[in-house]
Design a protein that fits this description.
single chain; NAD; 3-hydroxyisobutyrate dehydrogenase activity; 6-PGluconate_DH-like_C_sf; branched-chain amino acid catabolism; 2 domains; N-(1-d-carboxylethyl)-l-norvaline Dehydrogenase, domain 2; transit peptide; Rossmann fold; 12% strand
């Protein structure tokens, strides 16, 4: 792995695997359950908040799993369900020729693939390796080169939709890699998501995800600011949310993942901001966006401000809370 990596331009040539392009059999679920689908074991590395439900959806579609996570406790429920747990990513590669990785950072991904006990130590020729982590696009490109040297195929396929969509199997996958391999990747990804988007060469999936998460952070901060202001002006938060969601200010952060406690059930704000997508991870993704903006000389004024806000949150005790806790952060920070 090169000591220093440069980022390259944003994705181009986006192609969406739409209903028009899908097989006549119908839905993604139908594709997953086709008799022609090979139900040989699938390796899955990384069983965190997102990886856990993603792996479970593969199980629901009949795929035996070869499991690994750095935290053995994360594997226990899969082992209890009869899935095979191994002791390293290399062992996963020895037993499975299709592997999905879902890891927090670029460093974790590099270790899982290129480390002393990484996938590349025992990967088989012709294996399909799909990385659904959100990492530096340049790291994805470097990993792809290393994988190609071993005669295998690497695709980046980060996700959007959050824990709720991971549980329900409605994630959006943004896929970068050789287009001829897209159908093989889609067979698996379609079992975990309702949208599978081909973005172009390796790294373009990551580029799309970075742009999405920058916008998500900006919209979450905006929703939190608007809700906080309205509450301080005497509006009932549920009423304000209802008005926003039938008006032009509506967005995913307001109508699906509202950051104000008591407005919605089943979201982190209803559970003291536990679970969901951590503030540390959002700060990491905004850092990737900042690096990409610097390398492409792209102005991201609001993206940079969002990055600073989430970094401040991490420094003030919010690192393990869901990123929607920016509402609580703003409520407590009277000095802005």
């Amino acid at each position: 792995m090169a000591a220093s990596l440069r980022l390259f331009g944003a994705a181009s040539g986006l192609r969406y695997w739409s209903w028009r392009l899908r097989p006549a059999a119908g839905s993604l679920a139908a594709v997953c359950s086709r008799s022609v689908a090979s139900k040989t074991p699938v390796g899955f590395i990384g069983l965190g908040n997102m990886g856990n439900p993603m792996a479970k959806n593969l199980m629901k579609h009949g795929y035996p799993l070869i499991i690994y996570d750095v935290f053995p406790d994360a594997c226990k429920e899969f082992q209890d369900a009869g899935e095979q747990v191994v002791s390293s990513p290399a062992d996963v590669a020895e037993k499975a020729d299709r592997i999905i990785t879902m890891l927090p950072t670029s460093i974790n991904a590099v270790e899982a693939y290129s480390g002393a006990n990484g996938i590349l130590k025992k990967v088989k020729k012709g294996s399909l390796l799909i990385d659904s982590s959100t990492i530096d696009p340049a790291v994805s490109k470097e990993l792809a080169k290393e994988v190609e040297k071993m005669g295998a195929v690497f695709m980046d396929a980060p996700v959007s939709g959050g824990v709720g969509a991971a549980r329900s199997g409605n994630l959006t996958f943004m896929v970068g890699g050789v287009e001829d391999e897209f159908a093989a990747a889609q067979e698996l990804l379609g079992c975990m998501g309702s949208n599978v988007v081909y973005c172009g060469a390796v790294g373009t999936g990551q580029a799309a995800k970075i742009c999405n998460n920058m916008l998500l952070a900006i919209s979450m901060i905006g929703t939190a600011e608007a809700m906080n202001l309205g509450i301080r002006l005497g509006l009932d938060p549920k009423l304000l949310a209802k008005i926003l969601n039938m008006s032009s200010g509506r967005c995913w952060s307001s109508d699906t993942y509202n950051p104000v406690p008591g407005v919605m059930d089943g979201v982190p704000s209803a559970n003291n901001y536990q679970g969901g997508f951590g503030t540390t991870l959002m700060a990491k993704d905004l850092g990737l966006a900042q690096d990409s903006a610097t390398s492409t000389k792209s102005p991201i004024l609001l993206g940079s401000l969002a990055h600073q806000i989430y970094r401040m949150m991490c420094a003030k005790g919010y690192s393990k809370k869901d990123f929607s806790s920016v509402f609580q952060f703003l409520r407590e920070e009277e000095t802005f």
